[in-house]
Amino acid sequence: MRSDMAKVIVERPRLRGGVGFPRAGADDQVRREGMRRPWIYKGRYKGLNENLAPLERFLRSNVGRPWDKVYSEICAQMDRKSAVQLHIWQHLWQFVCRHPIRDGRQFVRVNGDPLWQEFVVDPKSGLLLENKHRWRWPKRSRRRAPSSDFIPGKDKCYRRIDDIWYEFELAPLPLETAGLVDVALKRKLSETSRQELISYHGAEVYATRKRQLNKKEIRRLPQPR
Fold it and tell me: What are φ and ψ of residue 90, in 5° steps?
């Protein structure tokens, strides 16, 4: 294990440092700091800037070795009296499970719950092994926007016009069309044939209102069959 592992992992400049305080005496600035709105309230609190990739690479390069030897190498380079280096031990157990139980091909906890650590210590051989059957958070399936520009419906329909999706409210096509306008065609019903409206909307209806959809609503649109 490299001797400067502690510096590589946690002893890096902290995020969002160097908070700028207002200069005293400025006429256009408040000279006192409020309790509810301090100078550093705008997302500028400091945070740890950790790089755990070297620790993960070290553990992966020692897969198949006895855990006692790997652990002794880590202890030789880390000072647990240091508050900063002590933080490494907390991350170490996030990568390694020392007391798993083998359940067929996979490892589980004592209570039977699956393991999410990337590495385990074999209870029989004492070797550091990669946990190939570890539990992972399920990935969210991202729904894509429909490939078609038109999604029909009974009371509402959806259209993509100039790369912008709209929701149109539909109403039955009346016999008297004087003064009515189809907002999708942007045309008066009196100037549009009945057959053209049926062909455009797929039914004897016309669009009374329209509303632009946001990104979240577009992802939830049903896929055309």
Answer: -65, -40
State how beta strands 205-212 and 164-172 pair.
Answer: antiparallel
Q: Are 207 and 150 in contact (CB under 8 A)?
A: no
Tens digit of each residue's pLDDT (9 = 90 or more) over 2-42: 666 666 665 555 555 554 555 555 555 555 655 555 554 44
CA dihedral 195, 200, 201, 203 (to 10 degrees): 30
- Reported residue count of the chain is 225
Helix, strand, coil content of the chain in percent (nearest 5):
25, 20, 55
Q: Report long-range pairs for 61-65 (Cβ below 8 Å, ≥24 apart).
A: 62/128, 63/119, 63/128, 63/129, 63/130, 64/127, 64/128, 64/129, 65/127, 65/128
CA dihedral 107, 112, 116, 122 (to 10 degrees): -30
In order of 9, 42, 96, the CA distances from 92 in angstroms are 11, 33, 6
Report residue 11: phi and psi, to 5°.
-90, 60
List, for residues 104-162, the tens digit of each pLDDT value. Answer: 888 888 887 888 889 999 999 999 999 988 877 776 656 565 668 898 888 999 999 98
